[in-house]
Design brief:
globular, homodimer, 2 domains, Cytidine Deaminase, domain 2, Ubiquitin-like (UB roll), alpha/beta, five-stranded mixed β-sheet
C-alpha cells in the first residue's frame, strides 16, 4: 500500500487567554489555535490555509485532492510541514502520468480557489456531479444513526473546550473512523479526504458527519468521495438541497440526539418500525 | 456624493422543501437560498461567490474592497447583477488613477482569494495591520452593548426561519445601521463593507457585530474598516486574539443576552458601576 513520505507535525490545539466577564471577573479562557500554513506544490506557492493544525499533512493532501490539483495519492512523493516557516512543501513524483505538465495545466485552469461561499472550482465541480453514481445497495438504519450521533456527542472535542471550530467525521455505521476539527469547515472536510487517500479508504459505504451547514460545496465534496450518507447537526441551503437531490445522496440535517430531518435519498434510510401499541 | 450605477437585484431569501422527521411526518421546511454569482471586473472573471443574494451589489463592491482590487468607491462606474446568467459585471472608471494598469498589477499579485480559512491576501493583510491606528477617544458602555444585543435578538432574520446563514451588523451605539446575512460569514462582512462605501459611512466610531467566529480574517477586516469595536455571539481563535491585541481593537466574544467575555482593547469599554449594596 503506497504511502508518501510524511511529517507528523500537529500543533497544540488550544491556548489560554484571559477575558473579563460581565461580573468583572478575569477568567482564563481556552481558545482554538489558528495558524497560517502556506502550501507549496513542487515549489510553487498555491494557497495559505488558516488551520487549527490538528492534521496538517492530511489537510494538505485533501486540499490538493479536492481542488483537483493532484489526481491520486500515488502522484505525491512527500508532504513536509515546517512550522518554523508556517509552510508545507509537497513534492510530486514527476514521472508519474506526465506530472509537471499536467499540474501546470490544472493550475492554469483554476483561476481562484474555493472557500467558504467563495468558490470557483465550482463550474468544474458541477460538471463532475453529473457523472457521479453513488451506491444504491447500502442502507442506514435509524438505530445506527442514533448510535452515531451518540458517539459524536461523547467524542472529546476542541469545540467543547474552546469553540470556534467545526468538526467532521467519517464513520462506518456508528463507528467513527476519523474525527477532525478545524477553524474552517472546508479544512475539516479536506483533511478527512486526505486521510481517506492516505489510508486507501473507500467512501462508498460510509457516513459523512459534519457539525457545519450543508452548502453546495459540502454536498459536492461528499459526493466526490462517493459517500452515500451525509449527516449534519446544522441546516442546509437551497443549493445544497438541489445538488443532493440531483446526485441522490441520502442527506439528513438537524441531526441531534433523537431528532433529524431526512431531506433526500430517502430510499437508503431505514426507519425503525415502532412496536404496535395494544390498547 | 458619488454613487456608481447599480442594479437592485436581491433574490428570494428562503425556499421551502419537504423533509421527513423522526416521527415520520412530512414537514414543509424553510431553507436559505444559495446562488452562484460570478464576478466580472472589466470583463475579467475574478471569482464565483456562493451567496444568499440579499445584497449582491454591496457584496460585490465589498469583495473588491476587501480584496484590494479596487481602491475607492470612486473607481467603480457600475455594478450590474444579472441572475439570468448568475453573474455581476463591474465596470471601473478607467481613467481614474491609472485604472486598468493598476488593476492588472493587483490581479497579478493576488494569486488566490480568501475564504473560510483559505486565505491569501493574507500576507499583504498582515503587513497592512501594522499601519492601522484605531480611534482611542471612543467608548462602548455595558448598557449600550446590552441594548445592541437586544436589538440584534429582536431583529427579524433568515437565520431564525431557515438557519444555515451567518449575520453581520454595523451599529452606531445600540442602533443597527445594516444587518446582512449570507451563507458564508465572509460574504456578510464584505457586503457590510460594500454598503459602507456606497453610503460613505465612516467606521471609526461604529460597532461591528457578527454571529460568526472571530478568526484572524474577521479581525483584520474590521480593523481595515477602522472599526474600534468588534462583538461576536461566538468564540474566537488564537490568531484572532493575537491580531486583536496587536491592533488594539476592543473585542468581545460570547456576547448573548447579559453575558460577554471582553478579550482585548479593554480601555474603550465602560463597565456599569454596580450600586453598592448596603447591608
Amino acid at each position: 500500500m503506497y504511502r508518501p513520505k510524511l511529517t507528523s507535525a500537529s500543533r497544540p490545539l488550544t491556548f489560554e487567554v484571559e477575558a473579563l466577564n460581565e461580573r468583572g471577573e478575569a477568567l482564563p479562557t481556552p481558545i482554538a489555535g489558528e495558524h497560517p500554513l502556506t502550501l507549496y506544490l513542487d515549489k510553487r506557492e498555491i494557497v495559505t490555509l488558516m488551520t487549527l493544525g490538528q492534521a496538517p499533512e492530511a489537510l494538505t493532501i485533501g486540499y490538493l485532492r479536492n481542488q483537483r490539483l493532484v489526481g491520486s495519492i500515488g502522484e505525491i512523493a512527500a508532504v513536509q510541514v515546517d512550522w518554523e516557516t508556517d509552510s508545507v512543501a509537497v513534492t510530486t513524483r514527476k514521472r508519474v502520468k506526465g506530472g509537471d505538465r499536467k499540474l501546470r495545466a490544472r493550475l492554469k485552469k483554476r483561476t481562484v480557489t474555493t472557500g467558504c461561499g467563495q468558490g470557483t472550482v465550482f463550474g468544474d465541480l458541477m460538471e463532475e456531479i453529473d457523472s457521479i453514481r453513488l451506491r444504491d445497495d447500502v442502507r442506514l438504519s435509524e438505530e445506527t444513526l442514533y448510535a452515531l450521533l451518540d458517539a459524536v456527542r461523547r467524542h472529546e472535542t476542541i469545540y467543547k473546550s474552546a469553540g470556534a471550530v467545526h468538526g467532521c467525521a467519517l464513520a462506518a455505521g456508528a463507528t467513527i473512523l476519523y474525527f477532525i476539527e478545524d477553524v474552517g469547515r472546508h479544512n475539516a472536510v479536506d483533511a478527512i479526504a486526505g486521510r481517506m487517500w492516505l489510508d486507501h479508504v473507500d467512501g462508498s459505504d460510509k457516513v459523512f458527519y459534519t457539525t457545519g451547514r450543508l452548502t453546495s460545496e459540502m454536498v459536492i465534496k461528499a459526493a466526490q468521495m462517493q459517500i452515500p450518507f451525509l449527516v449534519s447537526r446544522s441546516g442546509l441551503t437551497q443549493m445544497g438541497h438541489q445538488i443532493a437531490s440531483q446526485v441522490g445522496i441520502t442527506m439528513l440535517g438537524r441531526a441531534v440526539n433523537k431528532h433529524y430531518l431526512l431531506f433526500t435519498g430517502t430510499h437508503r434510510f431505514v426507519k425503525t418500525v415502532m412496536p404496535t401499541m395494544i390498547a
